Amino acid sequence: MLVLASASPRRKELLNLLVKNFDVLPADIDETPHTQEIAENYVVRMAVEKAIAAKIKYKQQSDIDITAVFIASDTSVVIDGHILGKPTSLEDSKNMLRLLSGRSHQVITSLCLCNLDREHLVTKCVVSDVFFRSISDVEIEQYWRTGEPQDKAGSYAIQGLGSVFVETMSGSYSAVVGLPLFETAQLLKQFGIHSLEDMSHE
């Protein structure tokens, strides 16, 4: 039994490429960065806290599977060491995309997998570099009106219309979307979940 600790439809779609049967159990946590917290540490901490929160929520259910494995992930857009969250307004989105315009930034995505008693807890952090072409204010306003950037870290979605801003990238595309597939498959193996092998037995 695998439990995804996320409400993100993108993470659900990506995980579904690797595992056909899993439950979704998102858990709310405080996502405020600590003072002077390094971006990589923050992203890993978020994934760990999500996994643990989902585990606690799961244990409150009447029917639980003691073999349950929890998977959580977190993605942050980082530029000049500064973490960009989700925009709260058009002005906020403008500030973020102006900052990213014509420059390279990092997308840091973390993974955390743990079992029910947390005897086995593993984490992974994946850093990808994304370079944006120059973006005009008119483009930013039009993009905002599509509704796409409004719930996205850094105010863009690489898997959507936001891809028109991406000149080059290096790293893991799936990690930038929200779940690094290579690393996820590697960590799932540690918990006895072998994606392609399991599919071959269907």
Write the layout of secondary structure elements.
Blueprint: E1 2-4, H1 9-18, E2 23-24, H2 39-59, E3 69-79, E4 82-84, H3 90-100, E5 104-115, E6 121-132, H4 137-145, E7 166-170, H5 173-177, H6 181-190, H7 195-200
Parallel strand pairs: 1-2, 1-3
Antiparallel strand pairs: 3-4, 3-5, 5-6, 6-7
InterPro entries: ITPase-like_fam, Maf-like
Cofactor: a divalent metal cation
Main location: cytoplasm
Question: What descriptive keywords fit this protein?
Answer:
202 residues, alpha/beta, Maf protein, 7-stranded mixed β-sheet, 7 strands, 36% helix, nucleotide metabolism, hydrolase, dTTP/UTP pyrophosphatase, Maf-like
The CATH architecture can be given as: Alpha-Beta Complex
Order of helices and strands: EHEHEEHEEHEHHH
Broad shape: elongated
Overall helicity: 25-40%
Organism: Marinomonas colpomeniae
Pfam families: Maf
Keywords: Cytoplasm, Hydrolase, Nucleotide metabolism
Catalytic activity: dTTP + H2O = dTMP + diphosphate + H(+); UTP + H2O = UMP + diphosphate + H(+)
